Amino acid sequence: MKIRTLLVDDEPLARERLRTFVAAEPAFEIIGECGSGTEAVATIRRATPDLVFLDMQMPGCDGLQVLAELPEDRRPAVIFATAHERFALDAFDVAAVDYLLKPFDRERCQQALRRAQDAVHRRRAAVPAPAPAVAPDRITVKADGRLVFLAPAEIVRVEAADNYVMLHLTTGRLMLRETMTAIETRLGTQHFARINRSALVQLDQVREIQPAQHGDYTVVLRDGTKLPLSRTLRGSLARFQAGAGG
User: Fold this and answer.
1) What is the pLDDT of residues 175-213, one digit of tens each?
2) Burial profile 185-194: b = 16 or more Cβ within 10 angstroms, e = fewer
3) Taking the C-alpha atoms of 124, 127, 132 and 135 in order, what is their torsion angle to the nearest 10 degrees?
4) Top CATH class, 139-244
C-alpha cells in the first residue's frame, strides 16, 4: 500500500520542488497540495493522509498550529520543510519525522522519506483503523493577528465574503481569511449545515423554515436573520426541521 502524501506550502515553487522529489519515489502517492495552514487542516481531516510535508510559516495558521488542530492520535506523520531553523526544537516536540531546511536537495529529501516510510509502516502495524471523525470541542481561528479559541456553539452562522468568511458569533463577529469549504470541514456536519453557497448555519440556531415564492424556502434563525435555502440543498430540509427544536 502506497503512502498517501499531502504537500503543504504557501510557495508554489516550493510545492513544485517537493512534488518532483516525492513523485519519483514509487512507495509514495501525492494525494493533494495546500497553500495555507487552514486549508491543510481541512484537507487532513477530510483526506486522512499518511504523511504531510508541512511548511512552518503560512497564511491562516502556521505548521505547529495545524497540528494543534488535530487530535494527537489522528495526526499523520509529518516532515517539516521550512527556511527557518529556529523552529526545529518545536518540531521534534510534536514528534516530527524529520525537519528539512530549505533549500534541500533530492538526497536529503530521500533520507526524510525513508524515515517517514519506516514511521508509517510501524504505525500501520501497531495501530487499528482510526475511529470516525467527531465534531470538534473547539476550533482555533486566526483573526487580526490573534489566535481565538471558539466552541462551535458560539458560532451562529458563517457567511462567505470573497476570499474571507465572516463568523457571526453569539458575542460579535470575526472576519477570517479562510474559504467556506475549509471552515465547513473544520466545523463538521453534526451541528452545522450549508444552506446555500454563501451561508453555513448552526442547526440549533434555526427557528423556522418559511415557504417562499416559486416553491423556494427561507431559513429563519433565532436572531431573526433570514437566509435562502438553496434548491440543491433541499435534501437537508429534514435536518433543519430536526435541529430547529421549536
Assistant:
1) 998 888 888 888 887 888 888 889 999 999 988 888 887
2) bbbeeebbbb
3) -110
4) mainly beta
Q: Number of C-alpha atoms within 13 angstroms, CB side, residue 63? A: 29
Calpha distance 112→122 (Å, rounded): 16
Cell digits of residue 105: 536537495
The class of domain 3-126 in CATH terms is alpha beta
Instruction: Show me where the domains of the chain are located.
Output: 3-126, 139-244
Evaluate if pTM is beyond 0.70. Answer: no
pLDDT tens digit sequence for 105-153: 999 999 999 999 999 998 888 755 555 555 667 888 888 878 888 888 9
Q: What gap in Å lies between CA 78 and CA 75, rounded to an integer?
A: 8
CB-CB contact of 139 with 187 (8 Å): yes
Burial class (CB in 10 A: 0-12, 13-18, 19+), 175: middle
Report the alpha-carbon distance of residue 4 to residue 147 in Å, rounded: 30
DSSP 3-state of 55:
coil
> Any idea which residue has 448552526 for its cell?
202
pLDDT digits (tens, 9 = 90+) for 67-118: 888 887 788 999 999 888 877 777 777 788 999 999 899 999 999 999 999 9
Residue 140: beta bridge partners? 149
